[in-house]
Amino acid sequence: MKVRLEPSGLGFEAGAGTTLLKAAEAAGIEMPSSCRNGTCRTCICQLLSGSVHHIVEWPGLSAEEKTEGWILPCVAEAQSDLAIDAPKAFSVF
């Protein structure tokens, strides 16, 4: 699936079974992260379009945040093409 990061316009492919954070890193894109298990919230981003599946039963998001479209890329996998608001993402190339 294709993932586009806003406002930078950076993009990468996210295959099945790969978290968004790992897919971004494989494409040379750095996003804020720390725990990588869905608890610290360092990587929190807002999903603008598309759908994801969190690989942990209840990631560190409130029900209200989930309803508002907030995701944790360290434990989220793409289920469709995505657009994500990730203002601190940057290319390492």
Would you give an account of this structure?
The protein has helices at residues 20-26, 63-67, and strands at 2-6, 11-13, 29-30, 45-49, 52-54, 70-71, 76-78, 82-85, 90-91. By secondary structure, it is of the alpha+beta class. A hairpin with a 4-residue loop joins strand 1 (2-6) and strand 2 (11-13). The two termini are 22 Å apart. The mean pLDDT is 96.
User: What is the rounded Rg?
Assistant: 12 Å
Question: Which residues sit in consecutive blocks of at least 5 with pLDDT less than 50?
Answer: none
Q: What's the SSE pattern?
A: EEHEEEHEEEE
Outline the biggest β-sheet. 5 strands, mixed
Strand content: 25-35%
Global geometry: globular
Structure annotation, total helices: 2
Cα separation of the termini: 22 Å
Main-sheet strand order equals 2-1-8-4-6
Strand-pairing-aware structural class:
alpha+beta
Helix proportion? 10-25%
Summed over residues and divided by their number, the pLDDT gives a mean of 96
Strands, total number: 9
